[in-house]
Structures are given as C-alpha cells and as structure tokens.
Give the backbone structure.
Amino acid sequence: MASTQEKATPCCIPKAQDDVINKSSSSSSSSSSSSTEVLQNWSLAVGSGSDRSEDPTPNTASMATLIRPVEPISDPAPTKTTTTKGISIMTRAQTSHPLDPLSAAEISVAVATVRAAGATPEVRDSMRFIEVVLLEPHKHVVALADAYFFPPFQPSLLPRTKGGPVIPSKLPPRQARLVVYNKRSNETSIWIVELSEVHAATRGGHHRGKFISSKVVPNVQPPMDAVEYAECEAVVKDFPPFREAMKRRGIEDMDLVMVDPWCVGYHSNADAPSRRLAKPLIFCRTESDCPMENGYARPVEGIHVLVDMQNMVVLEFEDRKLVPLPPADPLRNYTAGETRGGVDRSDVKPLQIIQPEGPSFRVNGNFIEWQKWNFRIGFTPREGLVIYSVAYVDGNRGRRPIAHRLSFVEMVVPYGDPNDPHYRKNAFDAGEDGLGKNAHSLKKGCDCLGYIKCFDAHFTNFTGGVETIENCVCLHEEDHGILWKHQDWRTGLAEVRRSRRLTVSFICTVANYEYGFFWHFYQDGKIEAEVKLTGILSLGALQPGETRKYGTTIAPGLYAPVHQHFFVARMDMAVDCKPGETFNQVVEVNLKVEEPGKDNVHNNAFYAEEELLRSELQAMRDCNPLTARHWIVSNIPLISFSKLQGCIFGGA
C-alpha cells in the first residue's frame, strides 16, 4: 500500500556487488486477441508456389544467437520477404510475445483510450483506474507465436494441415483489459482496448488504441487503492469525535496514529456492495523518534468507525469501550537489536554465494530455459507472478507441455476471535488489495542471493498514471542439498548428486503482513510452489489481567488472535497436450489397507487406490495425510497407449 519508493527494502550488502543484478530490458508489448474469430482475420502472405510443406523454423545457428545467458537479447535483424515453396517468411520479428505483460507505454495508451471514450467530461474526470492488464489471448495464438515467432520455435505445437502450414505475416494485435471505478456514480466497469505496436511505442495522448467494448458490472466493488487508504486515514484523524476518543487514551498527536482501512466484508445487508465501505483498524505509535517503530504492537481497541470510501466521510462512529494501550517496548521495533538496548547475533560468519562462470539459466525477454525446463513469466496487479507455457524437454520425446498457466489467484485470512473488532477480520488479500500492486523492489543480498536476474513490473495508479516497481521479480539458482545418494556396502563406494533448483519469486506487503511467493523448478522434474509468511501479526489489546481463549498472549496487554491463511492456486494444466486438446484427467490416490482374508493371509497388505474425479463437484476434496492422499494430472491417450504397449510386449 506504500508508494514505490516506500516499498524499497534497504540493501544489506556492499555497493561493490551491484553488478550482480542484471536489470531486465523494458519491452514494448503489444497484446493479442482472446477470440478465435481473430484467427480468421489475420493478414496472410502466402506465395504462389504449390508446395507448402517446407517448415520455415529458424535453423539451429539462428536460435543459438537468439538465446544467450542472462543478458537481454535483441531481435534478429529484419529480413526481406521471401517465399519458399509457398510459405511466407515474416518480414520482421514481433517485438512482444502474446503473453508478455503490458509495457508502461501500453498501459498509458489503454488508459488514454478509455478516457477518450468517456461520454462527458464529468465521466472522464470521475474515472479511477483499478487495474490495467493484458487480456490473455486464445491458446492457439500462443501456440502460433511459440511455433514461428518466438522461442522455443516449435512448429509441432500446431496441428498438421493438408498441404503444409499457412503462416500469417504477423500476430493479432494485443488487447488490454481495464477495471475502472467511477467515483461519481459508484459504478464498476470492465473495458477492452485493442493496442498496436505504433500505439505501444508512444505514450502521448493522440496515439490511442481502439475501443472494443465496455460493460458495467452491477453490485460489486473493485479493490481499494493506496490513494484511498491515505485519504481514509486523513478523514478519520480529522474527525472531531475520533480525536476526543484518542484524547481519552492519552493521545493528542495525530501523527502517531495509524488508521488501516479494512474492507467492510459482508456480514449483513448493511454491508451490501451497493456502497464502498471500510471499517478501519486503529494503531498508535509511541513518542519514540525511531523511524522504524512497530506501531502494530499498540492496537487501539473499543473504537468503531465506518467510512464511506466513495465520498470519504465518516458514516458511523462510537467509542464503545476504553481499553488501555499496550505499554511501549522498544524491543518490538524493526531495527537492529543493539540500537534498541538488546543483543543481536554476532557469531554468524559471512556466507557468500558465487557462480564464477555465471548462471545455468538462459533468458530471452520473459522466456526462461534451465535444465530441460522452459517457461515464460508474467505479472498482474492481482496475482503477482504468473508462470506461463511450462514445458520439459524429455530426451527423444522432445518438448513436453506441462501447464499453460500457474498462479495464486486469491488468499483468504479468517480470524477466529468472535470479539469486536476481530470477528469481521476476514481478508481477501488478492481480491481486496492486490498481491502484485503491493510487491516490493527486491534487493540483492537481502531478498535474493547468488547470480540474480530481475524483472520490472508496471501498473496503473488510481488516477491512470503508470508506476514501475523495479526488480520486482527475482530469478536465481539455489543449491538444495542432496538430490540422490547411494553407498554400496560391499565395496564401500558411494555416489552422491547435489540438487540444484531454479527459483522465481516476488514479495509483497499487505498492511501488516508480508508474503513471499516462490516457484521452484527441480532437476528431477518437480515443480513446487511455496509461500513464506513474515512481517507483523494483526494484534489486539487486553484489559489488565485479561486473557483470550481465541488468541495467544505475546506481551503484557497484547495478544495475537488465532487465524488461518488459505492460498488459492489456479493451475491450467496441459500435460502432453497441444493447444485446444482437453485430454487431461485428475486421479485421486489414497492408501488402502487390504482386509484380512485370502488376499492378505499375513495381514500386512496395503496398496494405492486410484479414483478418477469426473466432475468439479466430485473434485471438491479435502487433504487427508492419514491415507497419503494426493492427486495426479495425467494425459488420457498416453495412459491408454502405455497400457496397450504393456499388453503387446508382454508387460503385466
């Protein structure tokens, strides 16, 4: 919720190591259409020859020059249009892959296009831009781009056609999807804008995209913005009854007061989304001059505030109960221990991660290759990091698709204390705030170690300007202990293999909490998603001598309400599937103990039982560690072919 400058983490290592990070080059993206109708409208440049069976894939030498370690790679030089047996060779390389995030220029053009489409000056002035993102194209468009326009240059991604492929001279224009809040009418609308390369290259007003559509979405409220948070805090602090309530608690300096707006939730019809409402939580710093003081360690309880976020007025206020502020304790602050009269660990020796020959990964724009893995990375204001087009190069089987899209789309944090105000703390941090919009600028030596490649992220702010979070996504390799080991007891000889993993990550702050999202790729073919929770707990204050059943006392007058974090991952799997194929199935596996009888005469038998989940309703399942429950996503034709092979060649 802070500005880009405020989000930056101070660097923890000497300036001499600054050359470790290679900043990604900003690319002007141009977006693709998500409709299959666009496929029919592409401009084709087909030669007059009768034989179109020859494949225009770039040769091996060309691809070698396109992909180099770490450093951004420029596009190949434009070539003249030539015809090879009826196949048109594209006249110039596309500048942006269909899945690349919107560039800063594209965001500006999309905003200008929507503003220009406003019916009246009042409508245009009332527009607040919540989200401007890429409208992701149809999978067939992505396949075409990956086949002939961008790495991995795999023509096999497209279905074979009689007479050979017909290749368009260019990809469809990219499109942007905008979520716009009208502050005057309290309406939320979704706009679609078509972009082009000339639009993307210019951030001026007269170069606009093409308006495609817009619709008002009734009975919803879009995520709140940092501008609204700041305005809400100022309104509450200036409210005379609030200032009187703080005086009763011994606080007259409003600069010490922290007001954190929380979405009102939906506990009754009074909370219906016809109004844009917030119920703030109040905290208070001490008289300390420490700039890193932990104000969350002093919650102000007993004050009820309801704020109309559309008009920025206090609708309800009540000082319900006077609860003493928890006593000040400098050891709760963020700064190093010795500056607070405490002691930090001083016996930790330096640990340096070096790769004298550079990293093992290769980067071309947003396309990553590492240890047989290849994928693309994207970023959205809501989800943060998105992993696209995950594939694995499997020996003579070639490039095997694994997933089209991987991301965390939502998280919910329910609190279990039924007392006010904690009963209404039920945060949807992605939908109500945005994980990506609250991301940090990562710092080498602090957030990431080793040979690092970073990527920037671009967003719109509330008024339609563009903000850039530099070094928002970190890509690096990590040693991960032992991958495999065996020792022959007869010879005493041992073999061991170290495990290396590739990690793509970002970190965001939502009010008091920090969330680190990590996608790990392993050499044994495993993908792992990890979320690390850190930051500060959302605390409550206690009366002298009081304890709470629904929380843990962590200091005098201070307790942490019990709560949970549920993370919702969206996985669009495509195991061994070409675009358009729907051959994947989900199988649940549970450990089963064989009943005593003729098949279990020794009473020791157990086995893994598989059950095909045939619908989404049936697939609403709980984890069960007692049966080692897990799920397998598999390709149906390949399973059938494997079983057929077993029958033909005498397998069981």
Q: What stands out?
A: The radius of gyration is 28 Å. Residues 1-93, 641-652 have pLDDT under 50 and may be disordered. The longest strand covers residues 466-487.
